[in-house]
Write a structure and sequence with these properties.
The protein is mainly beta and 430 residues long. The chain has strands at residues 7-11, 16-20, 28-32, 35-39, 87-92, 107-111, 116-120, 125-130, 197-201, 207-208, 212-216, 219-222, 227-228, 251-253, 265-269, 278-283, 293-298, 301-305, 309-311, 326-329, 333-346, 355-363, 374-378, 385-386, 390-396, 400-408, 415-429. Among the domains are: 7-39, no CATH class; 87-125; 196-231, no CATH class; 245-299, no CATH class; 301-429, Jelly Rolls.
Length: 430
């Protein structure tokens, strides 16, 4: 049957079909490649199913659909086989330095050039990428660790540049006199001059001749005219030796120079004709107290008492005994005092327990005390105590006499003292 009052619109792109004004009809549309069949009529009985039609051509890909809902978690897969693992064999500088023989599956090397790990898979090496990740954030400062042990002494460094020249040092001690050289040829006779005669320290009332040289207050004077009783003129700043000028030969006298220079040396004696001591000093102006003359050599003041003495029974206080010994400290200053004896023994008439023996000294009018004493312990008359003495530094404000004193603490015995001695050595004087 033909279609009546039918209007069809067909667009080939999406095969859109519009059918209008078909009353009480059934429209069947069969499609085949490039064929559209339209039929219209009254609804009849359903015919038998036709054979399978040919597969049509694949249509164009449609647009991406929306994301579907995530499906449920699948079941756990079966356990995989055990891997071969890796065995670190060391490091190589670059990939080209990886070994080409003797490799076993799982051998691994670190390539230093890019910090990557290379693993042998049985055939060749494959890169596992860099084993170092990006730098992490700076961590918090840790607490102070314990002090480490002393490290070994390092190697000696290179010699540094020469430093600036230091200041002028003080003059050293005069060296010994050198050997006498061979006698030279005799020279021509010179004009008669004024003879120079060194007369040591100036003495008032002495008749000096022209050419005589005397020492007064640490300064040497030359007599230019015969004179008697003339006092050498007072020294001025111009007559003193500058610090940079070499000092004259060491002078000797019974008192220190009145105007000493820094570094000046002087030999102090108690007599210019029969000295009992000879002390060499050096003047150091930087010392802050009054005792600026430093002792640098010479003999000590010492007195020995070789004769034995016996202190009375129960002598608990200090007493003086025959022979002293005693010495006089001649000048103000600091001295090292040494005293002692060779041995002590006691008469044990009643089998006493022994005791302690003390040898000390008075300092002028100040009585002897145990703090300055040599102390001997004697436990039996059969065993005398052998002593070597003691040392102590004292400061005196004037010349003063030291006198040895003795006492003992034992009960009912007398004490015999053997070979006693007292010695003083200057440290610094003024």
């Amino acid at each position: 049957m033909l279609l009546d009052d039918v209007t069809l619109t067909i667009e080939t792109e999406d095969v859109h079909v519009v059918v209008e004004d078909i009353p009480e009809t059934r429209l069947t549309i069969d499609t085949a490649p490039e064929v559209i069949v339209l039929a219209s009529g009254n609804l009849g009985l359903r015919g038998p199913e036709g054979p399978q039609g040919l597969t049509g051509a694949e249509g164009p890909v449609g647009p991406q659909g929306p994301q579907g809902v995530e499906g449920p978690l699948g079941p756990t897969g079966p356990q995989g086989s055990t891997g071969t693992g890796i065995l670190m064999q060391g490091q190589v500088p670059t990939e080209g330095d990886l070994p080409v023989t003797g490799n076993t599956q799982g051998d691994a090397y670190l390539v230093q050039a890019d910090d990557s790990l290379w693993i042998y898979d049985g055939v060749t090496f494959i890169s596992g990428g860099s084993i170092q990740g990006p730098p992490g954030p700076t961590g918090l400062t840790g607490s102070q660790g314990p002090t480490g042990s002393q490290g070994p002494i390092g190697l000696t460094g290179a010699t540094g540049a020469t430093g600036d020249q230091g200041p002028q040092g003080i003059q050293g001690i005069q060296g010994p006199i050198g050997l006498t050289g061979p006698e030279g040829p005799e020279g021509p006779e010179g004009p008669t001059g004024t003879p120079i005669e060194y007369e040591t320290a100036w003495v008032v009332g002495t008749a000096y001749q022209a050419g005589d040289v005397v020492l007064h207050d640490g300064i040497e004077y030359l007599a230019v005219n015969p004179s008697t009783g003339q006092t050498p003129p007072a020294a001025t700043a111009l007559t003193r030796l500058p610090a940079t000028v070499v000092a004259p030969p060491v002078e000797i006298g019974t008192s220190f120079p009145a105007l000493p220079t820094d570094g000046q040396e002087f030999i102090l004696v108690d007599s210019l004709t029969a000295p009992t001591y000879q002390w060499l000093f050096r003047y150091l102006a930087s010392i802050t107290d009054a005792y600026k003359w430093m002792f640098i050599g010479g003999s000590s003041l010492q007195q020995n008492a070789d004769a034995n003495i016996v202190t009375p029974t129960n002598q608990g206080t200090y007493i003086a005994m025959t022979g002293g010994p005693a010495i006089t400290l001649p000048r103000v200053g600091i001295y090292l005092i040494e005293n002692g004896f060779t041995a002590v023994s006691y008469t044990d008439a009643g089998g006493g327990p022994g005791g302690k023996m003390h040898m000390s000294y008075d300092i002028g009018a100040t009585p002897a005390v145990d703090a300055d004493a040599v102390i001997a312990h004697v436990y039996s008359s059969a065993y005398p105590s052998v002593m070597s003495g003691r040392q102590k530094t004292i400061t005196v404000a004037a010349p003063i006499l030291l006198t040895s004193k003795y006492r003992h603490d034992n009960y009912g015995q007398t004490v015999t003292w053997t070979k006693r001695w007292l010695r003083a050595t200057p440290v610094r004087l003024s």
